[in-house]
Please model this.
Amino acid sequence: MSANPINTQQEVVLSVEGLKVYFRSEDEVARAVDGVDFEVRRRETVCLVGESGCGKTVSALALLGLIPRPPGEIAGGRVRFCGENLLNCSEDALQAVRGRRIGMVFQEPQTSLNPVFTIGAQIAEPLRIHLALPEPAIRERSLQLLADVGIESPEQRLADYPHQLSGGQRQRVMIAMALACDPELIIADEPTTALDVTVQAQILRLINRLQKAHAMSVLYITHDLGVVSQIADRVYVMYAGVIVETGAAEPLLRSPRHPYTRALLESLPSRRKRGLRLYSIPGTVPHPAYKPAGCPFHPRCPLAVADCRSRFPGMCAFEGGHAARCPVAAGRTDWRRS
Amino acid sequence: MSPEPASPAAYLEAPSRPKRTRFQEFWRLFRRNRMALAGLAVFALFFVMAVIGLALTSGSRPLLDPARVRLPEKLLPPLSTPHHPLLAPGEEPVLGVYLCGTDDLGRDVFARMLQGAWVSLTVGFVAVGISVAIGIVMGGLAGFYGQRRIRLEQLLVTAVLLAGAGILAAGRRPLGAAVLIIGHAWLFWSISPWGLRRRRALPAGLGFLRRDTLMVDTLIMRFVDIMLCFPSFFLILTVVALLPASIYTIMIVIGLTSWEGTARFVRAEFLALREQDFVAAARALGVSNLRIIFRHMVPNAVAPVLVSATIGIASAILTEAGLSFLGFGVPPPHATWGNILSDGKRFIFDAPWLTFIPGAAILIVVLSFNLFGEGLRDILNPRSRERN
Model:
């Protein structure tokens, strides 16, 4: 599955500008998302990549208004979805967008379905809320959706409870629910993390097929660069609440510019590195309430210079829309993967 | 891109599973619990008897008349036959025998017990219905919206409304009505779109009205604690003494004073459920908060509520019997188990059946509800289920 060539003419469906999400507690402010910009165009698969705790999920929840407030707060930024700023919308207006125009698939298929209702009742929920279809149409559409996501004998599955389904099937049901109202955008928050590798491959193929069939955009959140290389058109790499590198998937993965992206790729096992000790990034992700001054990555960065400790790096453009938040790497364009 | 193959993996994914519905599974576990089964059987019997009893003892010419006084036949032991010559036509018991004997006025105790069964049944179910409804709403609010804070303005509106109601109750009608109208006007203004829009432009001096005060959770749960501080039987006794005696008053008062346990259960369940992924998923589907609470969360929280409701019915029946025994219950011509017991206690040595029969009935019914409730708890709680 190769990445599609980027069509820059395509209309921007979702654009996030300078989004900041802070969590306040008694005596500290955790800056979970600290000025994130990204955009998703029509029919495009965009991956948001980063370690656990770097703010990927919080960004996704924030743009749907799902951050619990308090303790969370949107400290700034704009989320434009088809021209509307979602951050200014009322709760009612947001409810009309969620599930209807933006579908979301969660990480844990084991717990994302309500244990006391049948699959049929749960798939019917978005149809009932947003489309107000009559009952026979709801049933027909539910069957169609289950068939679409590749569930065998959908008739019987409708009467099943979530505990009677396997993890892969449950994730398919979640995807069917996200698709129910033909949304323009699907946000998939690590949908395959809880699944084993073969099921993961099936789900990725499924998402890809459905995206083509429904002409949707997909914002795919993951920490797995292997997944990124399979499905992404464009990639945003996040670290400590900021985007550190962005670009088309294939060139970005082939020649990463930011030392963090480079280190992430280094730490993947591969056949070439057989027998060698696997690389791991020294240190840990900074606590979101106590980020280092300057570049958040500098304490772990092999390229760090004096300026990195004091100055927050800007985005430096490279060829073909590729950009990285690292002036040091930008000055050393001859730098290659070792 | 290749279409997804109908691979063998799809077959492997289809789980092999026992084709049992939830109810079948429930019934299978329930049957093993002998005590609970016995409780259910007695409960069913009680239910049928109460319904039949209502049909037989009510109306203008009931088949079994619980109020028919036959003074010559007083204090007959159970299973004694009537002395026909002494009775006027139409006074003979329909069954030809006093199944449970007669009381000091010669009334048929069996008929009175049947009438009382209906009272116990309705008091139990209606009172528990009221308390469960209040408990679910209060517990649900505390569990779901608990972290929100109440604004000073809202507290003041409540205070004004309560003051208005108080003044009205004290007999100062025009003043009370005026205060109530002001309170309502304020309330509607503060929740109307017009008022909401003005909120940002509140005059500087009134800004303090929007100051956050208590958390919803604190308000509700401390109120629950306060309610639990009162010995509830004496609270009910006080209230009932002040209100006109009727079966409806008793139902409502018992219901209003016994919802705290349910509220605590529901709150505890909601605190756990609120963090569940499926609640987040429902929200991401655009489900409104009210629908999340009542459609998605309440069904997950019913198990402990069901158990406490079953046991609550038993205690409501007991409370009603206690009130009637003390003479604060259903007014006298109407029979209840409590007042049969109360009437009979004067003849406890001469006519022990007058105390024994209603006492045993109360014991058996309350015990059956408790056993049934405990059985439900064992089944609905997966941790204790494993032992079975």
